[in-house]
Every structure is written in structure tokens, then in C-alpha cells.
Amino acid sequence: MDGRKDTIDLLVVRGVGTREHLEKQTTRHLEKLLDESLLAGIRAEALQDPEVVRSQQRIREIDEQSRRSFEEYQFKLIFSTAVEGNVATDNTANREIIRNWLDEAKGDTGISLQWFLNVLKENPNLAQQLSWQSADVLDPTKRRHRERNQEAENRSVFDAFCRENRFSLVDANFHLAKCVLGDFDQYSLAQAVQSNALVLAPASPAELQQFRTEAQQERQEYLLNRASPEELRNAARQESEQRRIQAQREETERQIAARAQIDSTQGYTVLPEVNQHGERIDAAYLKNLATDVYRNYLRKYGATAITARLNGR
Hints:
It is a single chain. By secondary structure, the protein is mainly alpha-helical. The protein has 4 domains: 2-48, no CATH class; 73-138, no CATH class; 144-213; 245-310, no CATH class. The chain has helices at 2-13, 19-22, 27-47, 50-78, 92-100, 113-122, 140-165, 171-181, 186-194, 205-225, 229-263, 283-287, 291-301, 303-310; strands at residues 86-88, 132-134. Strands 1-2 form a two-stranded antiparallel ribbon. The longest helix has 35 residues, at 229-263. It is flat.
């Protein structure tokens, strides 16, 4: 009897049942309940072991990876199966729509080709939710031709992007963009570069010169052969303004050089980059100086140094 009482006491402490309920059970059943409780405790304790936790996590990861691999395989089958002369386009939007068709209440356990075809057969209107393309894309000859055209289009888009943003046209940059983005356009290239998902080598000095030369040639060809009279007048005005700015710049440079020749004989102190308070002495700083302080700067550092700094040099 003491053994039975001890068993009941232990079962009550372990929360298996109330004393009143347990006292009504046979000794054999009480021993069975105790064994099950002890076994459950051992399992619970084992599950807290770090190594067991890592193993369980790894098992879940493997299961999830297997699920994704199977789903990817089924999607490939779906997007390569013709339905009434068309095939669903393989894109993110279509994949998400198809996933949303899964209905656990109907016993759906996952995406498969047969499940997909059955869903469309039972609910033909669902096909309108997807984007489709001609089943001609499944023809190997037509597919290779389309891939060649897409590759040429990718290269053209990539070259234009590099010229505009001063990146190198080397094949390594192009293949990197393909690896990161697959097919792309100007927008996706810009987004990838801005987010640092795509890091391209900059253009060399020789390539930059080539870009400038090609741009000039393209502009000249356009103006000579395709520009409208209004575009020609605008181009003439722009070139006139550019010549005026260049002439003004050259005159400023000439005056600075002449003044520098004079100042070189005066023994002026070198104009520092910052003042005694650590403030940068740049054009904005000089323009905000009081008149008397500005004159002191001219007397101490010379007009050449002040003018050069005002011009951002």
C-alpha cells in the first residue's frame, strides 16, 4: 500500500491527475501512468539540449528546402505545359496567384501540375487571373531565337547604362549583371547598383574618352541628318552659350595667372584650408567675411589665392 500511495503522490505532483481520480485506478494502471509521465519528462528534457535543438532546427530546414525544391520543380512543369494553346508566364505575380489557389479545406497538400490542371478544369475563370503567352515559347527553335534576341537586348541596355553612368563595358561587368538580375532593364540595373546588390567596375580613362567621342559623333550625326529646324536652332544657341562660358572661364584663368605672376613677387602667406577654429576656408566662408576682415585676407594671402579659392580651387 505504501508503494501505491507513493505512486499516487508522485503522479499528483507531476500533474497527471487529481488524487481522488487516481485513487480509483488499479495499481497496474497507476504504474503505467507513472512510466508514461517519466518518459514524457525525459523527452521534454532532451528537447531542451542545445544539440537536440540544433538537430531539430536542421531537420526543419531540410524539410523546408525539400518543400521548396519540390514546389520549384512543379512550377517548372506548370510553366512548360500548354493549356488551350497558351502557357502561363513564369513570373512572381503568377506564382503568388497560384499559391493562393491552395485550399486546405478541400484537401490540397501542395502545388503540383495535376493539381493545377484540375483547378483550372473545375474553375475555368481562374485562368483570367494569370498572365499567359503563346505556347510557341515551348518550341526549342523559337526559344533559342528568342533567347538570342533577349541576350542582344540585354547587352544593348547594359552598354547604354554603363555609358550614362561611367561604368566599364568589360564582359566581366555584363556577366555579373546577368548573374545577379537575369534579364534586366535600365530601371532594374539602377536599383541594383543603388542598393549595392550589383557592384560594377568603373570605366577606365580610355573608355571615358571613348564615351565622350561616341556621344559627340552621335550628336553630330543626328544634327546633320535627323534634327528638325527648331532642334538645329536650339543646338546653335546651346553651342553659343557654351562658347561664351568657355571664353569667360579662359579669361578668368588668364587674369588669375597674371595676378599670380604679380603676387609671386610679394611674399604672401599660403592661404590655409581651415582657420584657427577648424572652419573650412572655402568660397562660402570667404563670401561671408566682413569687409574689413576680407581686406585683411587679401593683404595677408594675396588676391590670387583668394580668387582661386572663390572659384573652388
